[in-house]
Amino acid sequence: GTLQANLTGWYYDYKNFQYTSTAYSTLYTQNLNARLWGGEAELVWQPDEHWMFSAQLTDSASSIGDSFAVDFRNPIAGHSNGVYIKDDQLGAGDFPGDSCAIVSNTGVSPADDPAVTAAFGALGQANPFRAPPGGATQLAGHGVAMVNFGNCTTNFAALGLGNSYHYVNATDGSGSSPSGFAKSLKGNSVPNLPDNTVHVTAQYTWNFDGGYTLVPMVDYFWQSGFNSRVFNDGADEVNSWDQLNLSIQLTNADQGWYAKVFATNVADSRNIQAKSLASDTSGLYTTVFLEDPRVIGVTLGAHF
User: What is the pLDDT tens value at each position of the chain, 304 positions in all?
Assistant: First the structure.
C-alpha cells in the first residue's frame, strides 16, 4: 500500500501530421504521414508518513512515412549537378534575397560558363550570375555542389541555353520545385519529440508542535535531445538538457496560510530548448529558445 504505479503504452498513426516551414517570407504547411509510439510510467512511493518520492519516465520514438520536402538550408540535397542561386537582383518577378535551384548539365555554374556570358552579351547585358568569394564549389564538401549569386527568373530556353541549364522541376525528384531538390523524409523522426524524459522529486514532511509542517523538496528534470525539423540534419539537433529545482514550504495547522521559498534552474544553465529556422529571404538565421535563468523567490499564500 505504499507504491502507486501507472503504466501506459501508446501508438499514433497520423495521416496528416502537419509540418510548417518558412520560405520567401511565407509560412507553408505540409501534411505528412507519420507513426509515433512509446511508453510512460508514473510512480509515487510513500514508504512512511514523512517521505514521498515520485518519478515520471517516458520513452518515445517516431518515423515519418514516404514523404518528400525541400530543405531550404540545403536545397541542392547533395545532387552533383545542382546550383544554389541566391537572388541579389531587382527586376520583374524578382524578390531580392530569394533563392532557387538550377540543374547544370555542363558541370559548371552559370557564373563560370562563357556561353552564358556570351548569350547575355548578345543582348547587351552583363551576365547576372557571379560566384561568391571562395568560388562556386566552395560548399561541395557539405552537399551543395555549386553556389552563385544571380536571379531566379532567367529564361535559359529563350537564351538558347535550355540544354545546358534549367530550373529544378518535378522530374528531378519527387516533390521538387524551383526552390530545390526534394529530400526523402522516410524514416526520419518528427520534430520536437525527445526519445526520453525523466522527472523525479523527493520531499520530506516535518511535523511540529501546534500542527505546523515544513516540507523541503528536490525536483529534477532531464530530457534527451531531439530534432527541430523533419530533415534531421546536424544543424537541427537540440542537445539534451536538465534542470534542478529546490523549494521549502511552511504551512500552519489548519492550512490557512503558507510561505514558500523556491529556486528554479539552480545551476543557472542556458540550455537550448527549441530552434526555429527563418526564411531564406532573411538569411536562414536560426532562432534558439533558452531555458529561463535561475529564479529565486518567495511565495506567500492564504486560503479563505
Answer: 899 999 999 999 999 988 888 777 778 888 889 999 999 999 999 999 999 999 999 999 999 999 888 888 888 988 999 999 988 876 555 566 678 899 999 999 999 999 999 999 999 999 999 999 999 999 999 889 999 998 888 889 999 999 999 888 745 444 556 688 888 999 999 999 999 999 999 999 999 988 899 999 999 999 999 999 999 988 899 999 999 999 999 999 887 899 999 999 999 999 999 999 888 778 888 999 999 999 999 999 998 8
Residue with cell 531564406: 280
**Dihedral sign, Cα of residue 232, residue 236, residue 240, residue 244:** negative
126's CB contacts (< 8 A; 6+ apart) are: 120
pTM of the model: 0.82
Identify the three-state secondary structure at position 282. helix
First-to-last CA distance in the chain? Answer: 33
